[in-house]
Fold this sequence. Notes:
Shape: globular
Number of strands: 13
Amino acid sequence: MAAPRPRVALVHDWLTGMRGGERCLEVACELFPEAPLYTLLWVPGSVSPLIERRRIVTSFVGRLPRAATRYRAYLPLFPAAIRRLDLGGHDLILSLSHCVAKGVRTPPGALHLCYCFTPMRYVWDLYDDYFGARAGLATRLLMPPVAAALRRWDRRTAGVHRFAAISQHIAERIRRVYGRAADVLHPPVDVQRFRLAEAPGDFYLVVSALAPYKRVDLAVGAANRLGRRLLVVGTGPEERRLRRLAGPTVELLGWRPDPEVAELYARCRAVLFPSHEDYGIVPLEAAAAGRPTIALARGGALETMVGLDAGDEPPTAVFFAEQTVEALAGAIGRFEAAEGRFEPKALRARAERFDRPAFKARLEAWIARAVAQGRAC
Length: 377
């Protein structure tokens, strides 16, 4: 007699927009179409129908004033909110976590697997970006003890039986912060969303949230210095400052729908990627459209892209070493000198290694192994 199918619950930090984490969640939803989804808050219509057509259980955070747009202000309440979600009756918990989802209470006898985008970045590696000099005085005064408490809470991982990380870079962070091992499952790029153009256009492209740590200011500064046309897609708290910095060759487009972004990828000369990312899906989306990336030589981009000097594979990126306008401008110059070495078909072939069906198969196999092995960590 076949073993009964486990009763699965999915856990995600919040549902407020379609970003890289939500693309991974979509795949989990495909694997477990009947699983309910537990989350801190949900803004209806903000994520795909594939996610929203299931039962979604939210915490008290969603009922707080202006939570739909100001939910990050309630960060100190997140641990209590996630712990109050009742997942009783489920045998398998799959959390997809970059904040507190991994801290959900695991029912007795259940197996909890966590696909970890990062330990809580706000209180670890990016604390200064969120709560440093650019934050208000009250935030700078109040956050140190709050952050210390959140770090203590975040280190408690006994409820997770096995971790997977989005990159080797994050697996090392999990080892350093949590003292836990993690398998590596690189997130997917939906290659079919993108097409190859016959010839590139005359502009460079940034696709990014306009947050301080993304360092979009470096791309703007390099474009200003070189007189190169730059289009910036994205919104965020840095938008006003970036508009002040932008010279005549720089245009901030704000948010754009996926089909328009895919067309911009296909027509750009190259994508500028100046941030230190845990993984970074943008270089792979550019590659799926046959376009190279000029990227900071840190973080996840080193695991997915091939530099000019790699030798054994066709290049997909030009790397630069420091987060400065000078270093990025120099990398743009190196790209333009070697532009003919970047083959659109080779770039797309690189992206196909990380395509959505491949990720789905790897995630399913990882879950099956973990279930077969029980709670061995």
